[in-house]
Specification:
By secondary structure, the protein is mostly beta strands. It folds into two domains: 1-163 and 175-217 and 361-426, no CATH class; 220-357, 7 Propeller (Methylamine Dehydrogenase, Chain H). It is 13% helix and 39% strand. It has helices spanning 2-18, 20-23, 85-88, 195-201, 399-402, 405-425; strands at 24-32, 40-47, 51-60, 69-78, 100-107, 114-118, 121-128, 134-138, 158-161, 171-173, 179-183, 188-193, 210-213, 218-219, 225-228, 231-235, 241-245, 254-256, 264-269, 276-281, 286-290, 304-306, 313-318, 325-330, 335-339, 352-356, 363-368, 375-381, 390-397. The strands form seven sheets. Strands 6-7-8-9-13 form a five-stranded mixed sheet, with no helix packed on it. A four-stranded antiparallel sheet has the order 1-29-28-27. It is globular. Residues 11-78 form the Histone-binding protein RBBP4-like N-terminal domain.
């Protein structure tokens, strides 16, 4: 069965590769020696005429022969309508991209399961590993390390304690305040404020390595977490979607039973409209809920069910560029882009308008670039394939795909007239 699935993925990949010049404005493929379970955009460092240089955060999940690492890279992001179609279609799957250069290595205590940057200062990142603690890193202050066997672990700038059991994946940052949110196997959702540490660390280097204990753990489930001002939500293996409000204590505001028909893996709150919440599940679907119509008992009633994956959905994220658009990544090696405003349109899969099939194995994480519209970084864990390691891809779909139809047709007509005029002159 696995072999059949691999053949289907390879066939889809071959078809996808032939379409790169048509459906992408820019694409870069970067082979990873070790898989990365997370990828995030950092700050823009430099703005050029044809490209911007930007930080990229990823990791190396090793086999123990060398240490696990948190990697800070510099990425040259080519601007829209600059890259030639023939150039983006030519790449070596087993090579590193010239657009991605490693800048700094941090030797991480254990595997890096999740990376999240602080929106108020994206040089500060939090990481989850196979431990109860959340680790906070000041990327610029941390020394560059050489990852060799036996090397000492880097020292985090801050350690957040409060979980009673391992907290491996559920991690989020508040968009408006320096709050860190985490979920763990202890069925707790824990919230910390690191405001004082950020203020102190800029003036007092001795504050590095501090430990902050949470004051009020919330009894919840063992799922992922997302944030929305003082409100947040969590999901877990109990198939529940739970909404919390830090202002009213540690009791759930709403608990939706059976939000999906299987374990829930991920959740995201719409940054444009706080009423909409996305979830992804082992039932191969993504669902959108409206918190104004959530039920506290019985089966949850999603506004839409998005069924375009053939394996468990591992990551969902709303687009920062359009309120109705989101992405979903899954174990079927696909990253689907959806628009819930297109659900009523004719099509085989309601709402699906773009499918990134550039990975050959499960897509474990992706991140929209808030500094460069419609640009995405995605990463796959390729250990299940013959090549092993992982694949990092940076890509931007052609704007002809998502712009209004009338606008696109007008541009194509103008281009057609230009071609005819040039042909007539020659």
């Amino acid at each position: 069965m696995k072999e059949k699935g691999k053949i289907q993925i390879d066939e889809k990949y071959t078809q996808w590769k032939s379409l790169i010049p048509v459906i992408y404005d820019w694409f870069a493929n970067h082979n990873l020696v070790w898989p990365s379970l997370s990828c995030r955009w950092g700050p823009v460092l430099d703005q050029g005429t044809f490209k911007n240089r930007q930080r990229l955060y990823l990791s190396e999940q090793t086999d123990g022969s060398v240490p696990n690492t948190l990697v800070i890279a510099n990425c040259d992001v080519v601007k829209p309508r600059v890259a030639a179609a023939e150039h983006i279609a030519q790449f070596n799957e087993e090579a590193r991209s010239p657009f991605v250069k490693k800048y700094k290595t941090i030797i991480h205590p254990g595997e890096v399961n999740r990376i999240r940057e602080l929106p108020q200062n994206n040089k500060i990142v939090a990481t989850h590993t196979d431990l109860p603690d959340v680790l906070i890193w000041d990327i610029e202050a941390q020394p560059n390390r050489h990852a060799v066997f036996g090397a000492a672990e880097s020292r985090p700038d801050l350690i957040l304690t409060g979980h009673q059991e391992n907290a491996e994946f559920a991690l989020a940052m508040c968009p408006t305040e320096p709050f860190v949110l985490s979920g763990g196997k202890d069925k707790l959702v824990v919230l910390w404020s690191i405001h004082d540490h950020i203020s102190a660390s800029t003036t007092d280097p001795s504050s590095a390595g501090s430990i902050i204990k949470n004051k009020k753990p919330s009894g919840g489930n063992n799922g992922k977490a997302a944030d929305s001002l003082s409100e947040f939500c969590s999901v877990g293996d109990d198939s529940c979607l739970i909404l919390w409000d830090a202002r009213v204590g540690t009791t759930p505001v709403v608990k939706v039973e059976k939000a999906h028909n299987a374990d829930l893996h991920c959740v995201d709150w719409n940054p444009h409209d706080q009423n909409y919440i996305l979830t992804g599940s082992a039932d191969n679907s993504a669902r959108m809920f409206d918190r104004r119509s959530l039920t506290s008992s019985g089966v949850g009633s999603p506004v839409h069910k998005f069924e375009g994956h053939k394996a468990a959905v591992l990551c969902v994220q709303w687009s920062p560029d359009k309120a109705s658009v989101f992405g979903s990544a899954a174990e079927d090696a696909l990253l689907n882009i959806w628009d819930f405003n297109k659900v009523g349109d004719q099509g085989t899969t309601p709402g699906l308008f773009f499918q990134h099939a550039g990975h050959r194995d499960k897509v474990v994480d992706f991140h929209w670039n808030t500094s460069d519209p419609w640009t995405v970084v995605s990463v796959s864990d390729d250990c299940g394939t013959s090549g092993g390691g992982g694949t990092l891809q940076i890509w931007r779909m052609s704007d002809l795909i998502y712009r209004p139809e009338e606008e696109v047709l007008a541009e194509l007509e103008k281009f057609k007239s230009h071609v005819i005029e040039c042909s007539w002159r020659s």
